[in-house]
Amino acid sequence: MRPGTGSLEHWFSVPQPRHAAPMQLFCLPWAGAGAGAFQGWAAAAGPGIEVLSMVLPGREGRFSEPFGVDIGELADAVSARADRPYAIYGHSMGGTLGFEVVRELTRRGERLPRRLYVGACRPPDHVEPLAELAEVSDEEMLSRLIELGGLPEELVAEPELCELVLPVLRADFTWLREYVYRPGPPIGVPIEGFAGADDRSVPAEVMRDWAGHTSAGFTLGVEPGDHFFLRERRDHILDRVRA
Predict the structure, then answer these.
(1) Which of 42, 149, 233, 237 gives 20 to 30 Å between its CA and that of 197?
(2) Is 153 exposed, middle or buried (0-12, 13-18, 19+ CB in 10 A)?
(3) Under 8 Å CB-to-CB from 26, ≥6 apart: which residues?
């Protein structure tokens, strides 16, 4: 069932609502992150794009809710909020979420995004090595993520912050560990991928396999940077969305 307008508010962070913008961009974060991962995107996007960062359960304004990701609920929220042409950008785990949302909308026969953008995300039929972090100790999880560039090193020295971050991380990596790709027809939406030139976790040659998951065309851009290149390459990514 499609959620009502009132129930949609908790799903999205929209720092700069732009009801007259001709396009919407829904952004899905990486494991452990929230809508804050896309801070500054709304301002940088300009008047032509309304940026909607998705707020997943258990974080930010939904801190009191149980952790968990439900693709059907994500699809409900996107479908109900998309009131004009739109695209989806997902980074790392967010790319997998975005892909499954498009598949769910396709199954329902609902309006699809103009394009799916995936950054630093393995194709869904590939094994995700980071999923093993669901089963390691808190210390090892933090250490691995700091090494990857996903967390500031100073976080380890702040026990209160660690207590807030760790449950979200563990919930998301558990979702990745339990995720099972179910083979099906390629989506009828173009996919544009972005890979970090120095990303050892998801190298460009791995991301090229996204081409087999769309019947509408695939392109890949290799960006300077590591797994979290989107921080420095935000404006370039938004230029591609505008194009």
Answers:
(1) 42
(2) exposed
(3) 52, 54, 78, 81, 82, 86, 87, 88, 89, 98, 113
Is the CB of residue 94 less than 8 Å from the CB of residue 139? no
Tokens of 233: 């390459």
Strand partners, 106: none
- Separation CA 56–CA 59 (nearest Å): 6
Specify if 143 maps to a domain: no
Q: What is the pLDDT of residues 42-97, one digit of tens each?
A: 999 999 999 999 999 888 888 788 888 899 999 999 999 999 999 999 999 999 99
pTM of the model: 0.92
CATH code for the domain of 88:
3.40.50.1820
Query: Is there a domain that residue 22 lies in?
Result: yes
In a domain, 158, yes or no: no
Domain residues for the domain of 124 are 5-128+181-242
Residue with structure tokens 């081409």?
Answer: 211
Domains in the chain, number = 1
Is the residue at 160 inside a domain?
no
Rounded to whole angstroms, the Cα distance separating 95 from 44 reads 21
| Six token digits for residue 134 | 């669901």
pLDDT in tens, 111-135: 999 999 999 999 999 988 888 888 8
